[in-house]
Amino acid sequence: MLDKETISYEKAILVGIITQNQSEEKLNEYLDELQFLTYTAGGEVVKRFKQKMDKPNPKTFVGTGKLEEIESYVIENKIDTVIFDDELTPAQQKNLSKLLEAKVLDRTNLILDIFAQRAETSYARTQVELAQFQYLLPRLTGMWTHLERQRGGIGMRGPGETEIETDRRIVRDRIALLKEKLRTIDKQMAVQRGNRGALVRVALVGYTNVGKSTLMNAVGKSEVFVEDKLFATLDTTVRKVVIKNLPFLLTDTVGFIRKLPTQLVESFKSTLDEVREADLLLHVVDISHPEFEDHIESVNQILKEIKSDDKQTIMIFNKIDKYQPEFFDVEDLMIERSTKHYSIDEWKNTWMNKVGENNAIFISATEKENFEEFRHKVYDAVRDIHLTRFPYNNFLYPEYEDAFEKEEDSE
Ligand SMILES: Nc1nc2c(ncn2[C@@H]2O[C@H](COP(=O)(O)OP(=O)(O)OP(=O)(O)O)[C@@H](O)[C@H]2O)c(=O)[nH]1
Ligand SMILES: [Mg+2]
């Protein structure tokens, strides 16, 4: 008999620290995100541990007292996994794995794990595998204790440096092999991109879970995987889209996240080539998310890393249907009015003002609010790019208002 869908979640606890650079408020935001990541990876968070410290303990990340507290909680509550918000050093990971009776993961681990679960094409799998091996390489010494226990026996007097070296070499060889494999696929992909001809290229970029794929589906009438979990999209999807007779290429890309593991940015660089080669970026923002400004900041940071920060960009403030300012009580003298209490119209008068009318749009991809305006803006931008390239094609693409809707595209 078939069981009703029973998902067994691993029991997890989260650990984070409050430092001079990371206030308690900030930590809470990060832990909220870490909890969402855990859930995406198949875990259920039952408790959070926080500690205030000047800087992380180089041996155990948190202090000894806190670690004891965590340890007894783990034992009493049969916790499977302890997840640290920051990337642990190889030494910390090694020590913590010894001291705690549970799997020890950090944010990077978790993200890599989700990526591994979700990678579908051989290209995405190769990229994730490469990132995983790069993460593993400096941590091999920590793993040795496990291997050692398994092997034991004659001639195994502790982990000899030579054996660690052998393991390192195997991993290094594997890394070299994966890089070679990626290079080959990259070449093929570059050829494919080259074959796409003169069409203007538009790429959807943005933080994870902001609605990029939803928007792609809404514009392109395509079916891209949408889910209320993080990193629903790992592979880039390119679709030919037509707005009022004007064809262009629209790319959906992997979402970005704060504290993105450097190995991942590195190995996903080729996926991000689509972004690098785009003529126009649509930077999608989930305006209903309390930290959306932070999200924009980290997306811009990554765009800079891949040298795409100077591209023409339209900011798409999505999910306006869900946007809810915090209630501001005028009589409560303890609370100062801040951006949390802003209406969308007030937001428009902040720095958003400087983005320029043509480069910002407020929409709801699910409710199709302001969708006509969105199509208009994208049409104008794509048309401008097209006309700078092919001035003689002027007659082909008139002003938006005068352009005819292609039959298949009309509503
Ligand atoms: N309320 C509301 N929800 C939306 C809107 N647009 C998207 N969503 C929801 O947000 C969630 C994430 O949407 P996706 O389209 O998968 O987001 P994404 O940016 O592609 O995410 P990744 O691929 O994970 O980076 C889904 O549950 C969508 O239904 C919107 O305008 N309003
Ligand atoms: Mg997506």
TrEMBL record:
Record keywords: Cytoplasm, GTP-binding, Magnesium, Metal-binding, Nucleotide-binding
Cofactor: Mg(2+)
Gene3D superfamilies: 6.10.250.2860, GTPase HflX, N-terminal domain, P-loop containing nucleotide triphosphate hydrolases
Keyword Transmembrane helix: no
Highest taxon of the lineage: Bacteria
Binding-site residues for GTP, renumbered to this chain: 206-213, 231-235, 252-255, 318-321, 364-366
Coiled coil: none
Molecular function terms from GO: GTP binding; GTPase activity; metal ion binding; ribosome binding
UniProt entry tagged with the keyword Calcium: no
Main location: cytoplasm
Subcellular location: Cytoplasm
Positions with a binding annotation for Mg(2+): 213, 233
GO cellular component, one term: cytoplasm
Domain annotation Hflx-type G: ranges: 200-386
Purpose: GTPase that associates with the 50S ribosomal subunit and may have a role during protein synthesis or ribosome biogenesis.
Record PANTHER family: GTP-BINDING PROTEIN 6-RELATED, GTP-BINDING PROTEIN HFLX
Record-stated family: Belongs to the TRAFAC class OBG-HflX-like GTPase superfamily. HflX GTPase family.
Self-association state and partner proteins as the record states: Monomer. Associates with the 50S ribosomal subunit.
Name of this protein: GTPase HflX
Native source species: Paenimyroides tangerinum
Gene, per the UniProt record: hflX
